[in-house]
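Handout, page 2. Input:
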Amino acid sequence: MLTYLRKRIISSAVPLLVVIVGVFALARMTGNPAALYLPLNATEAMREDFAIRNGLDQPIWVQMAQYFGGVLRFDFGSSMRTGESAADMALRAFPATLQLAGTTMVIAIVLAVIVGSAAALKPNGILDRFCSFLSMTAASIPDFWLAIVGIWVFAITLGWVPTSGVMGMAAWVLPVATLVMRPFGTLVQVVRGAMVSSLSEPYIKLARSKGATEYRVVGAHALRNAAAPGLTVAGDLTVGLVNGAVVVETIFGWPGIGKLMIDSILQRDFAVLQACVLLTAVAIFILNILIDVGYALLDPRVRPSAGAHKRRKARSEFRGQSNGPSTPSAPTANNPAAAVLDA
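Output:
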């Protein structure tokens, strides 16, 4: 596992480098910051002084080299607008995005497991058809449209929740409800398909023939073996939320890194924008590593050491056959029927 993690970290260095270079170049294509931070009647001397103070008087390749040197020292520069450290501003805004994305995914996973499992009990039944329609509708609704409609109906017309802010539980309702729809709709389809496949396996029929309750069959056996694909999709959706909650944070005034990123683009605050993008890229990289590790823990067949383990097992079985009759092997996570028999 450590070798696998080391390879993943090394392989992610190139994408991170591409992100740093791409953001550095694209940020400077938004225009000259002097047009925003200096008055309209600014003299040429004032413009030159502004460029020197912010390091914009150097050629682009020199600026990039200086930026890379700063990244290696964990120095991401200062904001042109406030003079504050860009890294401090990004780190202060990032927890709000993580809280919003984490809360959204917990609610989406719980609801999707309940709805998807219920729909899989009777495939093509009335409940299954209704859940499929509900999930496809939820996955198809654009976030920005749902956010605007939610503000109009529940905040302006009914006055039940505030239109923006983070103070109080009521302020979380509309942002979370807006973001939860897409992952909920996608996960319901994944959980439903995996559960239908698991419930048709022989070990499930064996568990039912032994008199196991439907709750134990679904919760202890089928759901556990159907969790691996759901975990992979849930991880990808979480990465998407961290990376793509920009519009929702802007609409609801959520003080996360997405809103800070948009404000930095509009204000041509290059250092803050670069710090936000780099922090988000590193967070996505860490999340992907955690997803891979979690998937390997749930399904031993995909572990990097699975091939070596199988070779060692085959050699030991061959030696046992050569020396005499071998004893049956113990049930493993790859043999669900054996686990049911031992239950």
